[in-house]
Amino acid sequence: MNTDVNVIWRKGDGEMPEKVKRIVNAAQDELLLRSLELPTDAVNTIRYNAGKNSQTVNSYISAIVLGHI
Fold it and tell me: What single string gives the DSSP state of each residue in 24-44?
């Protein structure tokens, strides 16, 4: 097994590069959607609407929740 790792950013290195931000946001979005255990159609609708509004899934769902409070 190869243990070589290409580190592209470390906490404390300053601002996170845009490429890393996109990867982190995508991972957070995926974890959120999986934790909600929604039907596939609902997940697809959330992804579509978030993308249409140029938002992350996390931001899109947060806006929905805050709108209902």
Answer: HHHHHHHHHHHHHT--HHHHH
